[in-house]
Write a structure and sequence with these properties.
Blueprint: H1 9-25, H2 31-47, H3 53-77, E1 98-106, E2 109-114, E3 117-122, E4 132-139, E5 142-147
Parallel strand pairs: 3-5
Antiparallel strand pairs: 1-2, 1-4, 2-3, 4-5
Helix pairs in contact: 1-2, 2-3
Length: 148
């Protein structure tokens, strides 16, 4: 079946696109480095189309190992930093802000409205509807508050 298959530069360019597509779907930043190796092999085959498929795969393997190793070292020295450290900790975004109680704080639990969402709040006090509270922390999906 593979006897008639030709490993020309188009194969490597398509493999590059497939690897980049996998990189977008799978976390880990490994397919990016393999895609870089594949595009280099595609460029080499484009320049010299007489290279056998065995040599092409050896070049791809060597370049793949080198690029993965170099990429991992680069990312260790220059880690990707998020612009928003509270991106996945939604409750932490509200710490220090003031809100009014939407539902009275009874036995230490009540609710506040932030945007279109009602948040469960806990505090060491009882408060009436409309009382202003400050968010001091979060515990999962529960905001911790103190009276003002």
């Amino acid at each position: 079946m593979l006897e008639n298959f030709e490993f020309n530069y188009w194969f490597w360019f398509v493999l590059t696109l497939v690897l980049l597509g996998l990189e977008m779907m799978v976390p880990g930043v490994i397919f990016l480095w393999l895609a870089i190796a594949a595009i280099f092999v595609g460029g080499i085959v484009y320049i010299d189309g007489a290279i056998g498929w065995e040599v092409q795969f050896v070049i791809f393997s060597v370049l793949g190992i080198i690029s993965v190793y170099a990429g991992r070292n680069y990312l260790k020295k220059n880690p990707i930093k998020s612009e928003d450290e509270n991106l996945n900790v939604r409750g932490a975004r509200y710490i220090g802000k003031k809100y009014k109680l939407e539902r009275a704080l009874v036995n230490g639990e009540g609710k506040i409205r932030i945007g279109d969402t009602l948040w469960l709040v806990r505090g060491d006090f009882d408060g009436e509807v409309g009382m202003t509270v400050r968010v001091t922390g979060s515990d999962g999906t529960v905001l911790l508050v103190e009276p003002l």
